[in-house]
Amino acid sequence: MRVVRVLSAALLTLGLAAAPAAADSSPSPGTSDDGAPTRAGTSFRTATEVEQGQTATARASTGDYLYWSFPADAGQRPTVHATVKLPESHAAETWQIDVYDGLRRRQACQYGAQTRTAGTDTPSVELECVLRTVRAWSEPWADDPLPGTYYVRLTALRLSTADLGQPVDAELRVGSKDMGGAAAVDGALSEPLVPGIATRAESKEDDDSAVLADLEPEDGWTSGWWSDRWIWTAAGGVLAALAGVAGYRLTRGSGRPPGVPPTA
User: Fold this and answer.
1) 59-84 per-residue burial string, b: 16 or more CB within 10 A, e: under 16
2) Which of 8, 93, 115, 182 has the most beta carbons within 10 angstroms of its beta carbon?
3) Rounded to an integer, what distance in angstroms lies between the CA atom of residue 70 and that of residue 174?
4) Could you give the CA distance from residue 175 to residue 190 in angstroms, rounded to a whole number?
5) How far is Cα 61 from Cα 86, in angstroms, rounded to an integer?
């Protein structure tokens, strides 16, 4: 009996030690196994944070406003792609995505289908918005895209009364292209534009809590004085020096012939 009690105590200790590890390995609420969000916010304050390259999903009802947020750094040209899977039976619906910067200023799409109408019983609708290149700094009066957090709003504009409240599935993916030194400018912001408040669920038991948004690009904020323009500038300087030396050698002539004294 004593041996049985000892073995039982040992197994209980191992079970208690393994329980936290199992809890830590489970995905956080509102995310999939790969860490991508599986829900969307309903306002700017509750926008769901999504990293570039992730595919966020959400179950919603037709007529809802869906919000996500993502980081974008200087030199990047973000592309927002959204897909909405519609009910099997529905009337014509018009969907639209809008992108706002950290100051809640609406950013114009450089190109892409920002608004589309899904015909009757069309299974899905795809939207895309390619933003302008994010600048390292801008004049106070301008509305240029600046480094920081951006908001995406997805919603239906024109709906029939019968379609209101029908379930839909939404997918959002944000990517960007590095434009390099061609888009670099002199100067940089001291801090990126970030929203003041975001919400995040800390655990399955806790409610969403308001926290400071901490999104940033994968490699950190890189806005600053360095860009690949310095490489081209240095290469241009070297070529200019070589051209100067070659020009001098071609134009200086053969010099004074041997045996000819210099003139006074």
Assistant:
1) ebebebebbbbbbbbbbbbbbbbbbb
2) 93
3) 8
4) 25
5) 10
Element (H, E) at 127: strand 124-131
> How confident is the model over 128-185, as pLDDT tens digits?
999 999 988 878 788 888 888 899 999 998 888 888 999 999 999 999 988 776 666 6
The DSSP bridge partners found for residue 158 are 94
With beta carbons less than 8 A apart as the criterion, state whether 84 and 95 touch: yes
Q: What token pair was written down for 242?
A: 């070589």
As a whole number of angstroms, the distance between CA 145 and CA 73 comes to 9
Percent of the chain, pLDDT > 70? 67
Per the CB < 8 A criterion, the answer to whether 227 and 184 are in contact is yes
Closest by CA position to 58, among listed 79, 28, 80, 84? 84
What is the distance, to the nearest Å, from the Cα of residue 7 to the centroid of all Cα atoms in its chain? 53
Q: Which of 32-36, 51-55, 79-83, 175-179 has the lowest mean pLDDT?
A: 32-36
Greater pLDDT, 35 or 78:
78
- Write down the pTM of the prediction: 0.70
Q: Can you tell me the distance from the alpha carbon of 236 to that of 230, in angstroms, rounded to the nearest whole number?
A: 10
Taking the C-alpha atoms of residue 177 and residue 101, their distance in angstroms, rounded to an integer, is 18
CA–CA gap between residue 57 and residue 59 (Å, rounded):
7
Question: Which candidate, 33, 26, 51, places its Cα nearest to that of 213?
Answer: 51
State the amino acid at position 39 in one-letter form.
R
For residue 229, is pLDDT > 90? no
Using DSSP's 3-state secondary structure scheme, residue 264 falls into coil
Overall size of the chain counted in residues:
264
- What gap in Å lies between CA 134 and CA 129, rounded to an integer? 14
